């Protein structure tokens, strides 16, 4: 049987890895560099993380700080792994590598280190790189300023295309992107933008002010990174300029950084919806995994105990009509499920920004209508089943009507709680699935047993 394309590719990668490891172990510099530098930076990063620290230390002697910087920018690792890797390097080598990285990427790495380590690396770096990185380190985390880069191309509105092309050729090697070229005035205020295509197809003697677009979409340096991500997604930008309150151009945010932000935000929201402290990392240590999950579980445990004590208060009702206990999981489960569905819709609407363009009361009315329709249908179905199963018409009405009311209330709670949290500037994802489920359990028990107690005479 002939090998598939994937099998051949996997075999080729394995051969490359074995050859590279052999070259490192035998200290064959020429062979290692010939094979390693031919790889894509992503593949270089995968190999770098697979080998042990003793081989990595040897690799640092075979790659220049500039080559290592390109590899380091493409590493797909967790944030807490930067510190031990940098500790393997000679401090001077590490500092030079960081100075060769794009400033925003270097800042991302330094933000994971102790303040003393950051100060040490900045002291060793060349003055220009250190100054640029220090400026970015001052911005608050999770804002546009913290993820922007200062490696961009800016030209003046009162110059010609010929002089702009000269600037572009000189600054392009150090710029993170050249597809957008930003136009500033004498005070470095952002006044326009143009694409690389616009610049190339224009006559050399044309003034930049004649071909630039003065309708520039920008973000403020203090804007939340999630809001920036939504704006770039909505407008399909490859990059967006970052300005201060006086419209001075401070930097740009590129699409690759926004993809990282979106990935982290999605992971963070999913963690909270699952009731887990952090799902960015896969914990191979059961103690670390338990430590992250226990806070939520203990909180939910106490809520569960409250639910159990609530049922205990209706002990007299259960003694008289024991069959009521059979339907507790059904009522509570339906409430939890429908509440979680409404929660997911509301949290997604807030996260994507869709609810900013929609009246909140319309969402609440829509969810109430949904709860009414689903509750009515489920209530009728359950009422018929209970009547056929138990032969009790009033018991069927009780269970069916309890499901109707419970689904309406649970749906409204699932929509209202995240909206309220968002209004109070609390992350709505905190209203996690387990949390909303437990709250709806309590509500459903109160409705179910309250109605059973009220209509006890019809059940006995």
Keywords:
magnesium; Tetracycline Repressor, domain 2; membrane; 66% helix; metal-binding; transport; elongated; 460 residues; single chain; mainly alpha; MgtE N-terminal fold; cell membrane; CBS-domain
Classification by helices and strands: mainly alpha
Can you identify the CATH superfamily of the largest domain?
Answer: SLC41 divalent cation transporters, integral membrane domain
Oligomeric category: single chain
User: How would a textbook summarize the main sheet?
Assistant: 3 strands, mixed
For the record, give the distance between the C-alpha atoms at the N and C termini, rounded to a whole number.
Answer: 74 Å
Mean pLDDT: 82
Q: How much helical structure, as a percent, in the residues?
A: 55-70%
**SSE topology string:** HHHHHHHHHHHEHEEHHEHEEHHHHHHHH
Question: What's the overall geometry?
Answer: elongated
The count of β-strands is 6
The first-level CATH class name of the largest domain: Mainly Alpha
Unreliable stretches: none
Question: Widest sheet: strand order?
Answer: 1-2-3
Q: What number of structural domains do the residues give?
A: 3
Radius of gyration: 30 Å
Give the helix tally: 23
CATH-derived architecture of the largest domain: Orthogonal Bundle
Question: Strand share of the residues?
Answer: 5-15%
User: Looking at CATH, which topology of the largest domain would you report?
Assistant: Tetracycline Repressor, domain 2
